[in-house]
Write a structure and sequence with these properties.
two-stranded antiparallel sheet; single chain; 456 residues; mainly alpha
Amino acid sequence: MVAMVPFDWQAHDTHFIVAHLHYVLIGGAVFPVFAAFYYWSGMTSSRALSERLGRWAFWLMFVGMQVTFLPMHLTGLMGMPRRVYTYLPGMAWEWTNLLSTIGAFVLASGVALFLFDLARNFRFTTDDDAGNRYGGGTLEWLPTGLYSTRSIPVVRSRHPLWDNPELAREVEEGRHLLPYSATGLRETLITSPVRAEPQYLQIMMGPSIWPLLGAMFTAGFFLLLTVQAYAASLACLPLAILSILRWLWDTDRPVPERTVDVGAGIMVPTYVTGPSSHGWWATICVLVVAGMIFLMAIFGYLFLYGIHPSFWVVPTNRWWAWIVVATYGVGAVSTLYGRRLLRREGSTNWSPTAAALFASIFMVAAFALDWRSWQGQGLDPELTGQGAMSYAMLALQSQLLAVAVLMVIYLAARTARGLVTRPRNTTFDVVSLFLLYSCFQGAATALLIRYFPAGG
């Protein structure tokens, strides 16, 4: 609605925007959260929330939302700006604001009733929960305790508990796949994406405090930025990175058993690499997102040029681009050579990782040459769109390189502990994929900012 320029021209920064935002936000996000409390509270509470109070809370909040924000649309169209708490008399806004005030109290009473219900009935438990009170047919209602499901059932519909009312008991008795730990570690099954056929056994991280610390420091980094506590925020960043890397340390861990029986005589491998592993595809997804961001940056670069091409200048010393591209090319070749060394029987344990380390050094050197040579163009990013977009694209490349260097250091740490397996290794696959993409984007950036606009 507000994406239409003629309409937004009239409604921008009025109470209409406030009403429109809260209609979408409350109806689309807040109401489902309250519904989720009532539907899933029996999973973690020994007493379910009251359905009767829940109905009252819903209707109070629903009516309150309509009475609050529906008149507010009209108030905004009548000209009342947003972010004001008072206004002159005679503006004809009194009655609509009075209705919105009444609706706000009704909405608040519904929230208060929910909080009362929560305080009265919610009792956290891990053993004696209220259970599936509303007869849900999906897998989250399988018995789990603190250990996830005892066995993994074959699912043939969206509501397996409705199809087989005995499924929960069968799962608890271990009558389905992976009824016991095949390796003595925390495990799960990786299946094919369409037919869900078992592919391999994935070793999971064990119980630890590291994911909690990673979440706390990550939240601290972003939240402290909002209050301009920059020093504390920057202190949280390395702690978050170290916590997450330590949590991931046990994920790429081969076990003595090469294949295991996961039930019904189905034998699956315990370790796979390359396109067969979910880690490989997860990295591909990350790189697709990175590529989309890069394409959007290119679009912004070309769009600014298209608006005012007369203000853009033809870069000088374009030959620097080919030196940068060649240096990135050496990094890519070194990465590919490291993958080859990993498969070669005669190479040492450190040879593949050393090739990745050399690749990262060449990549950093290429970026340093790119940045330094571009500074000689004399394009101030604070004064020209061409300079701003060029430095923005270089900054985007610097972020990739920071992650790439961190990944190579992580790979070196695992190599030092003897955890990089031969002839294939998932960690090395992931790192090499990221290095190769970073080389490609860096080379493309160097060529774009120096050879567009053309001429000269």
